[in-house]
Structure prediction request, 394 residues.
Amino acid sequence: MKFIKYFCFVFVCLFIFGCVSLKKATLYDGEIPEEKVILPNDISVIVEPEIYDEDATDVWGLEKDICQEASVSDVAYSGKESLKITWNRDAKGCEWSGIGIGWDNWAGKDLSLIMSSVAIQMYVRTQKGKAFGLPFVLTLIDYSDGMGFLYTTNKYFERSSIDEEWQKVIVPLKDFEITKENLDPSNIKQLQIELQQSGSVYLDDISLVFYEEQEQTPWMEEEERDNPVGLPKLIFDDNFINDNGWGLVKDDCKQIEWSEKNSFTGEKSLHLRWNAEGENCRLNAFGVSWNKWFPVDITSIRNTASFEFDILTVGETVQSLPIKIGFEDYNRAKSFASLTADFVEGRGYDTKWRKVRVPLSAIPKGIDFSNVKQVYFTMTGKGEVFMDNFRLVE
Prediction:
């Protein structure tokens, strides 16, 4: 008893005079590591991987209308069936074209843990011939109508183009734009395939597969290029930019050449003389790439930039010229604006040099403005002009 009293007395003294300090203790004072998701060897442990194979029960849009004709076909990559689709978005009255697949009996699919490590894989071939693009917009839709989008550009292809041989197309889920339309990856309802432009293909074996992006080793150093949408951009004056033009031809229908006879700036201008009214005169055109034939995304300047150039006509004064100016994209789609009086100073084309300005916003929709190949010029009827100092400007 005396010992206990003595111990209590000593403890109180030490506590009061600061010889002992007490502090809170925790069971673990280290940093908590981030939780690492360990994926199983089989995707089916997380979600049903088969989107479409032999069973079209969960597929909608297999019908024929003014936009498309979609059905089940016996031309298959594997098994007995595939999806056969022919479409034309330019058909009169066509507002939307596509199909959808609510795989796994339309159950909600949780993809949230695998968005960065899984891709949609499909096998594709044309019904006939070759296509240099696959104008699909893949859309994941959730049960709250949130959506995530992706355009199937050529970088997802196994080969450079789609032809009559089956090939694999792999689209990583991490490339989908999911924030703009608030996609909830944990409650996916369906995969929708919106069909743009026109085409005819077979689709088969659409599924989810594990995907790990491979590090690319360039086989050659890529040359430096100027910013293709940095303005102003001189496209041709005494020559095509980077010498990346085509169509300088002399034949019975046209004569397109550089000329020293007339020029607005520099030493030469582009002399165009054509007559497209002959029976065999079909292609009266020329074009030029201003980005060394690499695709150009002009969506950021489409509403703020213009084509600007100087033009001189040979002959009488006219209010419009049978010349169209526009773009071609890497899916071979083209869209043009005609040279009307609205675009030329003085509202007339005559034997004096006149400045022409065509806003890019005047080029109608119908091409992929994020995948532009070149500026494209086409002539109809007949005429003769000199064109100079062609550029893109604010």
